[in-house]
Design brief:
Elements: H1 12-40, H2 47-51, H3 53-69, H4 74-100
Helix pairs in contact: 1-4, 3-4
The structure holds prephenic acid.
Length: 104
Amino acid sequence: MKLTDPKECISAEEIRNQIDKIDKQIIALYGERHKYVEEIVRFKDDEEGIIAHDRKKQVISDRRKWAEENGLDAGTFEKMYQILIENNIKRELELLKKKKSGII
Ligand SMILES: O=C(O)C(=O)C[C@]1(C(=O)O)C=C[C@@H](O)C=C1
């Protein structure tokens, strides 16, 4: 991805173009991440396994740490990952239901 250095940008429009490029790429990566989330259901058998409480805690605490290491607000990333993981749990539970009823 070719980006102009933030300090080299000469207008708000140029800055916004860089932000759009970055977000497009981030979202494409979340699309990739989601494919793995959908496949993990092949290795899970029940609701407890889907929720994976300890893993969920670890994911959130690692992302908090990574956010801080990058000069970002840990609480913001914790909230984002809480929402993401809650949605993933819902999706995984739907897929588990389908798996159990033989649909997939
Ligand atoms: O690691 C798992 O078991 C997953 O299902 C992935 C994931 C995640 O999105 O990172 C989703 C749900 C779990 O609560 C924990 C983590």
